[in-house]
What we know:
This protein is α+β, with helices and mostly antiparallel strands.
Amino acid sequence: MGAFRVTRNVELSTIYYIEQSFATDWTGVTVVKTFRQVYDTGVDVPIVCIRLFDTSSTRLEVGATTLENRFGIIIDIFAASDGQRLDLADYVLEKLRTNWDYYTFAHESGNNEVLVKTLAGRIHITDFITNSKIDLGDTVDTKDRFRHTLSVIVRKEVT
Length: 159
C-alpha cells in the first residue's frame, strides 16, 4: 500500500474535515474537489468545492535541508441565496480557525477504489487571504449566482 505525498494528503485531509463537519452540523451541503463535480447537473446547491492551488517551501532553519511547506487552499461556495452564501462562508471559516487533523491516505491493498487514512498530525492556518463574494451578474448559471470564495494558507504540523 503506497501512501500519497504530503501535498495530496493536505488537500484530502481538508476535504475530509469539511465533509465531516457538514455531515454533523448541516444537512444538504455537497462537498466536492473539482469544478466538474460542481457543474454536474445531478448536484444541486449548496455546494462547497475545496482544492489545493499552491505549495511554497522555505528552509526550516538556516543551513538545514528540511523544508517547511505552506499550502494554499481555495474554498468556493455555491449557494442558493445571498444569506446562505454568507452563512456557509462564516461556518467554513469558523471550522478552519480551530485547526484540523492531518491524515496520510493510501489505496487499500489491491483496491484502487478505497482510501485508507491514518492520523499523522494537525493542519494549522497561517494566513487568511480571501473572503469575498464572486459577483458574476444575474445572467449566469444558477450555480454561479450566489458564489463566494475563501482562500487560506496552511501548514502541516512539523514532526
